[in-house]
Amino acid sequence: MKKYILQPHIFLLIHILIATCLYTEVYAQQNTKPKQNCSTKTPLVITKYTQEQLNGIERTIDYLYVIRVYVHILRDNDGTNAATTEAQMHIDLQTMTNFFKPHNICFMFVGFEYVNNTFLNNSMNPGLAADEASLLANNKHNDAIDIYVHRSLGDGSGGNSYNIPSDHFSVVQANNFNFYHEMGHCLGLLHTFETSGGTECPDGSNCNNSGDLVCDTQADFGGSENMVTPPNSCIYTGNQTIVCNGSTRSYAPPINNIMSYWAACYTQFTVQQATRMRATIANQNVVNKCLVTLDATLYANSINITILNEFYMAAKSDIRIGAVTPGNTVFIGSGNGKKYINAGNKITIMAGTVIRPASSPTKFFINKLCD
User: Fold this and answer.
1) Any idea which fold 32-189+269-288 has?
2) Which pLDDT does position 255 carry in this prediction?
3) Which of 194, 247, 248, 272 is the most exposed place for a label (fewest CB within 10 A)?
4) Domain layout of the chain by residue ranges
């Protein structure tokens, strides 16, 4: 049973919030389709994993990866026109997580902030290095995947992962399906219609080295999502063909795949897409550095610890905070920035801990995203 343990003889002023994230139905029930789903560019070098590496990852399928995420909600200069609300942010994070949990990939929310910048909220072009640099100047984290939520992007897209893999991405909240599409890019997935490494033949004969490098996603082609009857349905009615392996072959696009452009039809990642994501998490530092450890401690041993600015702790299981040496103190005060402490199972606050939240509350969470 998940619970807090507050040991006796502690003087605490604690603001406790258990974040209850609500499940929402998938975007497949929405009736509109964006003009352009995603502006993520194909990387100059695409990582290919050997079959031996992939087999090794599949043998560890029962291991749960938990990744820190931090959210930045853009607003205009005067604090108006927020791209989303705190409540909607939690809903979108839960909806995103629900697609990854079946593959033992999960997320832990470690905080959010508002960023007041009219240009970044409404007009920035994620394909321009200068615009990306301006965005990342706003409290970029070294150990979490940063999610920036905008009202709109200057290139008309619904989202952008700034590399494949990556530790940050942008989404337009109105196209909130891009939370999970862009996170797929961050964890190493290509579009199902990728051709930079070669065009995949619908018979699957070159699936290991062409297309999206994943063999259990059907061959796709750019624009397949427009060949539907009736409009906005999830029924492919096109007749696109390709000549490969000496024959003319027809496409049957993966209309329910999150890395396709059939945004109104998203329901899943495939097993082999999950293997590629897990291989990326295990082998690519840009993502690996964002992993949550099993347990975490904040101990005042020979010196006192004072925390005034933004601070967060995360653990898959338990967190312990307090003084190991009598007379020392862990002091979490009301300086600049929020404080988030998020554990998967239990938070223990021991003697020697003083928390004075005032205008900057310290929030304690039991991670509900992975339940």
Assistant:
1) Collagenase (Catalytic Domain) (3.40.390)
2) 94
3) 248
4) 3-19+293-366, 32-189+269-288
